């Protein structure tokens, strides 16, 4: 049922989720700002008000994967 909801766009993913701290626009901006050894995961986490591990997961492609064309 969960995969069916996602496949048909009925899920609460991304900014539609009630507990989301980030928006799809934030994710695009995180990818644009990230520069290894210059802009760290912690710097991004501080700027966007989320944990370093959340930024790491986003940049590793393990979160917000519905925001296409980022990698």
Q: CA-to-CA gap between the ends?
A: 28 Å
Number of helices: 4
The helix content is: 40-55%
β-strand amount: under 5%
What is the mean predicted local confidence, pLDDT? 80
Number of strands: 0
What is the radius of gyration? Answer: 13 Å
The secondary-structure element order is HHHH
Which regions have little confidence, pLDDT < 50, spanning 5+ residues? Answer: none
Largest sheet: none
> What structural class is derived from the secondary structure elements?
mainly alpha
The best one-word shape is elongated
Characterise this structure:
- By secondary structure, this protein is mainly α.
- It has helices spanning 2-7, 24-33, 41-48, 52-59.
- It is 45% helix and 0% strand.
- α3 crosses α4.
- The mean pLDDT is 80.
Characteristics:
71 residues, mainly alpha
Describe how the helices and strands are arranged.
Layout: H1 2-7, H2 24-33, H3 41-48, H4 52-59
Q: Short summary of the structure?
A:
With 71 residues, the protein is an all-alpha fold.
């Amino acid at each position: 049922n969960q995969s069916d909801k996602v496949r048909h766009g009925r899920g609460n993913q991304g900014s539609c989720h009630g507990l989301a701290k980030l928006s799809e626009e934030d994710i695009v901006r995180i990818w644009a700002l990230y520069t290894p050894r210059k802009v760290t995961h912690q710097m991004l986490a501080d700027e966007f008000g989320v944990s370093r591990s959340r930024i790491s997961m986003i940049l590793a492609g393990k979160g917000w994967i519905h925001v296409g064309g980022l990698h």
